[in-house]
Amino acid sequence: MLAAGWAGAFPLVSGVGPHRSWGLCAAVGYLAAAVAVLVLPRRWARAGSVAVALLGAVLVPLFVLAAGGQGQSEVAVIGRSGELLLRHGTPYLAEPRTVAEYTPYLPGMALFGLPRALFGTDGWPARVAGDARLWCAAAFLGCLAAAVLPTRHRRGRPGLPVRPGRPGRTATVTASRTKALPAVLPTAPPGILAVAALISSPVVALPLCVSGVDLPLTGLCVLALALAGRDRPVAAGWALALACALKWTAWPAVAVVVALLAATSGRRAALRAAVTAAAGTAALVLPSALRSPGPLLRQVFAFPTGRGDLPTPASSPLPGRLLADLGPAGWYAALALLFLAGAAVARSLVRRPPQDTRAAADRLALGLALAFLLAPAGRFGYLALPALLVLLPRLAHLPRAPRPSLLRQFPRPPILPRTHAPRQHPPRRHSPSQPAPRPHAPRPHAPRPHAPRPHAPQVVPAP
Fold first, then answer.
1. What are phi and psi of 431, to 5 degrees?
2. 282-290 — which CB contacts under 8 Å span 24+ positions?
3. Which end of the chain, N or C, is more open, meaning fewer C-beta atoms within 10 Å of its C-beta?
4. Which of 134, 95, 142 is nearest to 113 (CA)?
């Protein structure tokens, strides 16, 4: 009922057409989900209500908005950037004249606009197939599915589970290590119903239906954290490279993932992840950056921070925005506070690095929340990204890596070569009539001195 009331307020107070359309459909869907809880049997009430909420708050409004070509300006910007990338090799216009012609994203975001360039916009089937929101949602769900899939840790690390039956490796956990290493035991199945409920909530349903820009970034960050928690530095580096090629707000995730790998897997693994992320990001960004360096700097970095030729529409009354409105001194003050917050989070990563996936997600969420609050320009909708980083690892039951202190305390026992022990025969059984032999007492090393025994006189009996 709370979600229905929150969605029903959009047609009354919002001035954005897609928001009003979503609020009208979502309010009906949430009300139907509340009725399903009361009508359906108890065993099917939760799953049925979540399914109804997904249908009414996500699927129906997404199809209606995509078929009608309605959405926030980000959808059209992504579609245009895909067409420019396909035709000219760069997603940026040389001389944008309006705010709608700016592309405040890195070149990787233009990949979600390629379907529009391929399918076109003639007819509602082509508009639906080429809508960037569908592909952003597909990338988000695919990253979540890959994050919760059970994968094995790297072989050779002490204290981690291995495949049972492998020769030369132990596959059992002794009773003395069961309480100390709970992460070695199999984890619970992912909370599919809880994740589906979060997707159907207004926190995810609204941006998914009207924009969908930050969802791939969120999914890739969660996937990178999950892969780093499973000691997969190269795979985590590639996930970070894809995220960093979408928006530069994903760059703090590299520091968090590197700190997590350094604390749990060693410096070599952290270096491999950092090099992979840097090389992948450069491979995706440099071609467009070399082709149009000036438009990239002005549209990607200067325009979102309020230093572009046109004012940015991200003008929510957040602390950094209120300081920037005071003038140049306020803008520099907001920038100084932003750098101080970043330095504090970086210091915490060095002094107390995260030890598992959830702690790393919380640290990244804290850093991004401070960045969005103290940035010279921002929106309230940006705070959905830190909220999802906190909720998704817990609802999806992402596996947690064991702490290195426990690994040092309970190392894996060494594997000794197999030797043939001498065959031991069973003790011989004796019959009841024959007494058992007495155990032989060990002889002393030095014999005891004894005096010679005198001869006793012979006694002759009397006749």
1. -75, 160
2. 283/241, 284/106, 284/107, 284/108, 284/241, 284/242, 284/245, 285/106, 285/107, 285/108, 285/245, 287/89, 287/107, 288/85, 288/89, 288/90, 288/91, 288/92, 288/107, 289/107
3. C
4. 134
CB atoms within 10 A of CB 455: 6
For residues 202 and 434, give the distance between their C-alpha atoms in angstroms, rounded to a whole number.
91
153-156, long-range: CB < 8 A, 24+ apart: 153/230, 153/231, 153/401, 154/231, 154/232, 154/265
Q: Any idea which residue has 């090099």 for tokens? A: 275
pLDDT at 163: 36
Residue 403 near residue 158 (C-beta atoms within 8 A): no
Q: Judge whether 183 and 230 are in contact, CB under 8 Å.
A: no
Tens-digit pLDDT profile for residues 187-236? 334 478 888 999 999 989 999 999 888 899 999 999 999 999 888 999 99
Q: Read off the pTM.
A: 0.77
Taking the CB of residue 128, how many other CB atoms lie within 10 A of it? 18
Rg (CA), the chain: 34
pLDDT at residue 52, rounded to an integer? 92
Residue 418's pLDDT is what? 54
Low-confidence ranges of the chain (pLDDT < 50): 152-190, 402-411
* Amino acid at position 315, single letter: S
At 335, the amino acid letter reads: L
* pLDDT for position 425: 56
Write out the two tokens for 187: 């984890």
pLDDT at 155: 43
Residue with tokens 């690892």: 393
Q: What is the rounded CA–CA span in Å between residue 58 and residue 46? A: 17
